[in-house]
Predict the structure.
Amino acid sequence: MRYCINCCIHLLPNDLHRQCFRCRGPDHNNQKCPVCRGENKIPLYTDRKQMKWLAVLEVRTDHCESWNGFFCLRKGKLCSLMFGLIIMTLVMVSYILTGAKHGLLLIPSPFHYGAFASNPSLMDNESLSDMKDYYQPSKMNISYVKDYPSIKLIIDTITSKIEFITRQRPDLEELRKQEPHMFSVIPDKFLPNSKNPCWYEEYRGNTTTDPYATNSYALYSKRFRIIFDYLRKVFWNHLYHYKDKHYRLRCLPHFYIIGQPKCGTTDLYDRLRLHPDVRFSAIKEPHWWTRKRFGIIRLRDGFHDRYPVEDYLDLFDLAAHQIQSVLQSDAVKERGKRNNIIIGEASASTMWDNNAWIFFYDNSTEGEPPFLIQDFIHAFQPNAKLIIMLRDPVERLYSDYLYFASANKSAEDFHEKVAESLQLFEGCVLDFSLRACVYNNTLNNAMPVRLQVGLYVVYLLDWLTVFNKDQILVLRLEDHASNMRYTMHMVFQFLDLGPLSEKQEALITKSPASNTRRPEDRSLGPMLPTTKAILRDFYRPFNTKLAQVLFDDAFLWKRT
């Protein structure tokens, strides 16, 4: 059985197939041939019904003799090719424009910004959040070069620019102007018969009013709604009635665990809340002072409505109910005893995260924030106690990377991100003060890893400008891990907590560690030796200053 290869028609044994124009020879004229001109179209039928689209099927080939052996492309394929090229061109143009705007181009590397522009008008008229428009990309790209000497030059530049300058704390009136509502809610004095700072506030709602209807923590998070459902049920049982008015007990924390992230704050929180005289906020990390009061849930998601101070105080209602029960007991009323229950709050961002200032406080001094978190806490609670847990900043950074990185985690990737972050940090300190760079929201968001969180002494010195040294307890995670009983006793003594029974102490000190490294992260192994050497050099001058401030060489972390 034979077929014509040109039109797939079955041929008889002696058939030359003269109906096919290719079988007719060189004298065949395509313009005159009715078959080639399309006059003899054959409709295609399926299931005895004529098709309504593609109703005519023509099996033909184009005459390509003029190409002289070159590739012969049909019109459809040619159009597809041209369309594909146009799409590819548009994608590339979009990539180039978007990458140039956001610093995402791979070649050349944008991660080394030569400097923040030394533009006086920038500081007078624009915020630091606009500095990214003034960044100049460097010609050098060391993001993928694991060459210690090359990166060491960057670290030497940073080290040469380090100056620990004492900040000027704002006066109380300036703080009042910035947060008038907060000062109208929190009183100047607290109840004298309570160790924890508490006060009575008149409640003007009625029995049909939901006291937590507008609480932002309950509205924005499903996992907190169970807590507030319980608070609604018990709320009316804890109102204090006096002269036909209703009062509710409000409380602030007596102490704050203020930092740092990935330094064991969760473990300290879990153990400390087992003490019978310690209560915590209903949510472990409210992040109110640093984020929620500015309307930040996640900075990358933009701003939401600001959480008022009342929403923050609601988080301590469970503890306030217990304190109120003690205050109304006969022992307190008749024998003059005081409440010894204290409340803690454990947001690990409190010590270091002042990123939101740039969006709310305009009167900046050379790029430095005019107000910090500690200024406001001290204004309301000058006697507050602060607990800080630190660890080797080199290991902290790697743990932070493993915890927050979402994909493609590896020691090599960590090394590249460290190099890129160092380049960015160098670009900042060339033109601005160390404090301006540490609190620079744009820089902190641009760095692939959070180098700045490990600059402990910068933050500690700023806290010491408003709080006395005996109000701050600084611990090391390494000591806590090796001798937990000793560190917990230090915390109990610092907070003036009562003695514990052997059973209570064993429960607190022998519980398994909290928030340890995930198994999948352990399998990645340690960081590269070169990366560790680079970070040791970077953090060394900061650790040296920290050890001097605390009079403790253990904070040099030489043995880790």
Remarks:
- Residues 374 and 463 are 6 Å apart (CA to CA).
